[in-house]
Design brief:
Layout (H helix, E strand, L loop, with lengths): L1 H37 L20 E5 L4 E7 L3 H6 L1 E3 L12 E5 L17 E6 L2 E13 L14 E8 L9 E10 L1
Parallel strand pairs: 2-3, 4-7
Antiparallel strand pairs: 1-2, 1-5, 3-4, 5-6, 6-8, 7-8
Length: 184
């Protein structure tokens, strides 16, 4: 009887482990497939300047110095952030001038490389009809309720947002913010 109970526990733990592994593999394969599908996309000039929420990729973010290279999607919902870097609604769209663009991604996926950014590094946003180049001016760690880093700006500013600390297990208590200003 005791052996039978142990066998059931063993099978249950095996199945639970298998389910966790399957979920992780699904998430990685979905992210990889989505990025691969749109990696060489020619962002149609017809989308340039549109102000409404957009379906599909808005563009691509590239930070060569730290290996960040990902598709930008509209919104910051869970499904969006599983597939790419999210554009925060209510902020300027990538490529628009005269205000703040805010992009967010998970610290353990698309913004993993942000832990190594330095002041002066270059960030490129490749969007319909335009390549916008930004230079990183500062980084900081803030609490989730410190939203002043998201307020509109008078000039072309890019804010990148992810959770912090980078090696934290679980829901991280702080936010890592990268501020960059458009150049050229």
């Amino acid at each position: 009887m005791r052996g039978n109970l142990l066998r059931r526990i063993e099978v249950s733990l095996f199945l639970a482990g298998f389910a966790c592994l399957g979920t992780a593999l699904w998430a990685v394969s979905e992210r990889t497939w989505f990025q691969w599908r749109y990696r060489d996309m020619d962002f149609a000039p017809a989308l340039a300047g549109a102000k409404s929420p957009r379906a599909g990729p808005l563009g691509r973010i590239e930070i060569p110095s730290v290996g960040v290279n990902a598709v930008i999607l509209d919104g910051v919902e869970g499904k969006t952030l599983r597939r790419g870097v999210g554009h925060l609604p209510g902020t300027a769209y990538p490529g628009e001038s005269g205000s703040r663009v805010v992009l967010a991604a998970h610290r353990d996926t698309f913004f993993r490389g942000l832990r190594h950014v330095n002041v002066g590094d270059t960030v490129r946003l490749v969007v319909p009809g335009l390549i916008a180049v930004y230079q990183i001016e500062r980084t900081e760690v803030v609490k989730p309720w410190q939203t002043e880093v998201l307020l509109p700006a008078d000039d072309d500013v890019l804010t990148l947002l992810t959770c912090f600390p980078f090696n934290y297990v679980g829901s991280a208590p702080d936010r890592f913010v990268v501020q960059a200003r458009r150049v050229g």
